[in-house]
Design goal:
Elements: E1 2-10, H1 12-15, H2 19-38, E2 42-48, E3 61-67, H3 70-82, H4 85-88, E4 89-97, H5 101-110
Antiparallel strand pairs: 1-3, 1-4, 2-3
Length: 111
């Protein structure tokens, strides 16, 4: 199992689109969410990053997904890039094997 975290904010190319065009674009992406759900991808959380967050990331939105394997991760990344998403949004991603706090702490100690 892998966790995949996205942080994004709109570029001018997005905010300059008419609202109708934004809605049409996003509605075309909706079936992809169902497709990945059928492949075992779980939406853990989507949300807006709150302004009062300590040491806030310079992004406005986040999504956290659990993905069953590396193949699905790669398929997801190819799909997102192929939709032109990155033309409209500045985004950073993080992905890693789901593990335990003890494993991460062990890695921190080993550094």
């Amino acid at each position: 199992m892998k966790s995949y975290i996205e942080l994004w904010k709109a570029k001018d190319a997005w905010t300059n689109l008419p609202k109708e065009d934004r809605g049409n674009y996003l509605s075309k992406l909706a079936p992809s969410i169902q497709y990945f759900a059928e492949k075992g991808v779980e939406i853990v959380s989507w949300g807006l990053i709150e302004e009062n967050t300590f040491n806030k990331a310079d992004y406005d939105f986040f999504a956290i997904w659990n993905m069953p394997n590396e193949e699905i991760v790669k398929e997801f990344e190819v799909l997102i890039e192929g939709t032109g998403w990155y033309n409209y949004f500045e985004q950073i991603n993080a992905c890693g094997k789901v593990t335990t706090p003890d494993e991460v702490i062990g890695k921190l100690i080993e550094m």
